[in-house]
Write a structure and sequence with these properties.
The chain is of the alpha/beta class. The chain folds into three domains: 109 residues, NAD(P)-binding Rossmann-like Domain (Rossmann fold); 187 residues, NAD(P)-binding Rossmann-like Domain (Rossmann fold, 3-Layer(aba) Sandwich), CATH 3.40.50; 82 residues, 2-Layer Sandwich (Alpha-Beta Plaits), CATH 3.30.70.260. The protein is 30% helix and 21% strand. The chain has a seven-stranded parallel sheet, sandwiched between helices.
Length: 390
């Protein structure tokens, strides 16, 4: 039986994937084989020897020590696309809120409380300060056409009548096929910024992108443009953003990650990280995360891992050995030799790599002996071995 620890409250839909006869699920499990997590910080956690996999019910994995997990042969999964529609809908809401000054107007209107019969007159007198442009016919630039960015582009093109242009040098074939014919393709990010009235970023936060939306990049945008940030607050240089809003270079900034620097700033709409805060999104993420754990723990299938390669596997016909190792030369042949020395034929072998990490899977008629497995584990670069029998 596999033991699963839940670090956050998570939907009971996980039990659809993790049956009670195979999985024991508890919040206080001291020696888990797998962990289900949402937002809990794991960087200071002790990762036990039993732990084989962590599944994050969400896309971001900043709360998980990825490098540490890789060194211990722990597979880290996320759930890309499970909350995409929820975030995309809020981005569309952000476009409307930012363009029409809805948040500021709501605060101003709330201040009229107590004016009695004068409220309608005061509304008509003061509403002019919140006039903002319509979206129809304007150009939306989408930087990053992953699951969320592609949905935003399609919704804006098909439903809002916007001209949409996108840029993503790493777009997947699946997301490219999903784009509406009304979404134009730009050759560079600069090309998008130069023509867009509204810009929305859907890119990961890393050392390269942190603070990358700065004065230099803002200068390439159209005068009076609006910026949407539903990725991470740290993508934007706060001082440069405030300067651009103050001098009129940008007309508005909508962000789903409030920070002290941006709260209360004129022309800034801060949404309290509501992108994935829908019951549908939470269930989708929980179910996908549970399925990823199940498939890896039971048969070794790796799908949507952030630190290991994609390895699609059905259940083994007889026996299977899965080896997680460093992506270095002359690793697979010595592993195969250890198996062959047992007189065991290799039915099929799969070898996949991702940056510094690799996975090699051997389907065999029988499992090698404990001595052979120990010999494999002792090979240079080998991090972890798992075995499966039908």
């Amino acid at each position: 039986m596999f033991k699963i620890q839940t670090l956050n409250a998570i939907s009971d839909i996980i039990y659809n994937e993790l049956s009670a006869d195979v999985y024991a699920i508890a919040k206080e499990e001291p020696t888990p084989d797998g962990i289900l997590v949402r937002s809990a910080a794991m960087h200071d956690m002790e990762l036990g020897e039993n732990l084989m996999a962590i599944a994050r019910a969400g896309a971001g994995v900043n709360n998980i020590p990825i490098d540490k997990c890789s060194k211990q042969g722990i597979v880290v999964f996320n759930t890309p696309g499970a909350n995409a529609n929820a975030v995309a809908e809020l981005v569309i809401g952000g476009l409307i809120m930012g363009s029409r000054n809805v948040a500021a107007a709501n605060v101003w209107a709330a201040g009229l409380k107590g004016q009695g019969a004068d409220v309608p007159k005061l509304v008509e007198k003061g509403k002019g300060q919140f006039v903002g442009p319509e979206l129809r016919g304007k150009t939306l630039g989408v930087i990053g056409l992953g699951a969320i960015g592609a949905l935003v582009a399609n919704k804006a093109a098909r439903g809002l009548g916007m001209k949409v242009v996108g840029y993503d040098p790493f777009i997947s074939v699946e997301n490219a096929w999903s784009l509406s014919s009304g979404v134009g393709r730009a050759a560079s990010e600069d090309e998008v910024l130069a023509q867009a009235d509204y810009v929305t970023y859907h890119i990961p936060l890393n050392d390269k992108t942190r603070g990358s939306i700065d004065a230099a990049k803002i200068a390439k945008m159209k005068d009076g443009a609006y910026l949407m940030n539903f990725s991470r607050a740290e993508l934007v240089n706060a001082d440069d953003m405030k300067a651009a809003l103050a001098n009129g270079k940008l007309s508005g900034y909508v962000v789903d990650f409030p920070t002290d620097e941006m709260l209360g700033v004129e022309k800034v709409t801060c949404i309290p990280h509501l992108g994935a805060s829908t019951p549908e999104s939470e269930e989708n993420c929980a179910q996908m995360a549970a399925a990823e754990l199940r498939d890896y723990l039971e048969v070794g299938c790796i799908h949507n891992s952030v630190n290991l390669p994609e390895v699609q596997l059905a259940a083994p016909d007889a026996a299977r050995v899965l080896v997680i190792h460093e992506n270095i030369p002359n690793t697979v042949a010595p592993i195969s030799a250890c198996i062959s020395q047992e007189g065991i034929n290799i039915d099929t072998m799969v070898n996949k790599s991702k940056k510094d990490m690799a996975v090699t899977v051997f389907d065999l008629p029988d499992l090698p002996s404990e001595n052979a497995l120990a010999a494999i584990k002792a090979l240079p670069g080998v991090i972890r071995i798992r075995t499966f029998v039908r």
